[in-house]
Amino acid sequence: MILTEWWFYVLIMGAILLIAVALIWWMGAQSQQPRKVPNEREPEIAAEWNPLVFESSGLTIEGWLIRPSNLNNDTRGLTPLVVVAHGWGSNRSRVLRYAKPLYESGYAVLMFDARSHGESESIKAPSALMFRDDVIAAVKEARKLTGIDPQRIAVLGHSMGGFGALLAMAEGLRVNAIITDSMPVHFDTMMEAELKRKKLPLFPLAYLIPTIWLLRANISRAQFRNAHIPSILRKYAGPVADNKQPVLMIHSHGDTFITSEELRSLSSEMPEGTIQTIFVNTEGHSASEQDSTFWEAVLPFLAQSFSTKSNRSTT
User: Fold this and answer.
1) Is residue 29 part of a domain?
2) Spatial CB neighbours of 197, under 8 Å, sequence gap ≥ 6
3) In what order do the strands lie in the sheet with 247-254?
4) Closest CA to 161 of 225, 95, 77
5) Banded pLDDT at 187 (limits 50, 70, 90)
């Protein structure tokens, strides 16, 4: 009788454990699936624009190419271009806020929906590495466009789009400049912010879900360790004279989703000259560009970067 009761309790505890594991796995999968929000509007601008379709890892990416009327051409008649990468759970229409100052300054703008976002095709387990690969694909596409100068390309990434752009440097991406806005510095920050947005408990999920994300996205521990932003910046970011890439990182003091303290801490640990940082004063995670300080920093940074010769690959 005692033995029977013991096995009964073992079965009950085993069933509870299996249910708990299945529930945590489901929560992990839910937290890894961004909202796929359709683009709410098309560019309403006084410039030429057209739809653009290209591929990333064999899947279709939908985008727009905006060409300025005030062309900033070189002697060959080629225009510099800025790739704009949105963040997690966003789409290209939501980063149209960056477009006008860029095309009015004579730059073409390539905007796209990352996979599993907007109108682009979806994958099972989106990740920061997906954003990285989509930025690389967008830059490759930009270099092939008629009338675009393949030697004058920059990337402006918001939040996870900026994270992906910096990760891309370690994969051979060479552009004139990378600008990040409101970017998380660490994987954990992005994960915890997404759990909060989905109203899922941090404990114990913040400790268990990273492993679930890695398993679902087929990311090895080695890949995870190598995707370390401070290490990547130390190796690849810096002055063109040092055969590195200029990086400007911007964050708002009023961002409560990804706080500016991460960038402040990162800046303090970087060797002098590795990155440039700007802090603005706007409310929210997606409003940095509303502060005039943003464009007062970004536009001269781009102009300087496009005027400086650098050693770039075709990636």
Assistant:
1) no
2) 89, 257
3) 48-56, 59-67, 108-112, 79-85, 148-158, 177-181, 247-254, 276-283
4) 95
5) confident
End-to-end C-alpha distance for the chain, whole angstroms: 71
Position 280 in a domain:
yes
- Counting Cβ atoms within 10 Å, is residue 124 exposed (0-12), middle (13-18) or buried (19+)? exposed
**Predicted local confidence at residue 92, as pLDDT:** 98
In a domain? residue 111: yes
**Any bridge partners for residue 277, and if so which?**
249
CATH code, domain with 150: 3.40.50.1820
Residue closest to 183 by CA, chosen among 305, 119, 62, 266: 266
Backbone phi and psi for residue 18, each to the nearest 5 degrees, phi listed first: -60, -40
| Residue 95, domain member (yes or no) | yes
Q: Are 159 and 181 in contact (CB under 8 A)?
A: yes
pLDDT value for 311: 44
DSSP assignment string, the chain: -HHHHHHHHHHHHHHHHHHHHHHHHHHHHHHTS---PPP-----SSSEEEEEEEEETTEEEEEEEEE-SS----TTS-EEEEEEE--TT--GGGGGGGHHHHHHTT-EEEEEPPTTSTTS---SS--HHHHHHHHHHHHHHHHHSTTEEEEEEEEEEETHHHHHHHHHHTTT---SEEEEES--SSHHHHHHHHHHHTT--HHHHHHHHHHHHHHHHT--HHHHHH--HHHHHHHHBS-GGGT-B-EEEEEEEE-SSS-THHHHHHHHHSPTTS-EEEEEEEESSS-GGGSHHHHHHHHHHHHHHHHS-------
CA distance 186 to 195: 15
Both structure tokens of 93: 């229409």
Structural domain count of the chain: 1
Range of the domain at 62: 43-186+229-307
pLDDT at 29: 84
Q: What is the pTM of this model?
A: 0.91
